[in-house]
Amino acid sequence: LMMYVHVPPGVDVAPSAVNTGAIAPFGMFIGDVLSRASVAALSFISGYLLWSYNRDKAVGALAVSKLRALILPMAVWGVIYLLLAAVKARATGEAYGYAALSDPLGVLNDIFGLTRQTANLSLFFIRDLFVSLLLIRRAAPILRGPAGIAVLGVVLAASLLGNLAPLIVRANILIFATGGAVWAANGLRLSDASRPGIALPVVAIAGFAAWAMMQTELNAGRLDGAQNLLERLSLTFAVIFVAGLLAASGPGRGIARLGRHMFLTYLSHMPMIAIFWFFWQRLAGGPMAPSYVLFFFFCPVAAMVLGCTLDRLVDYLPKGVQLCLRGKVRQPTTRTPT
Question: Which end of the chain is more exposed for a tag (fewer CB within 10 A), N or C?
Answer without folding.
Answer: C
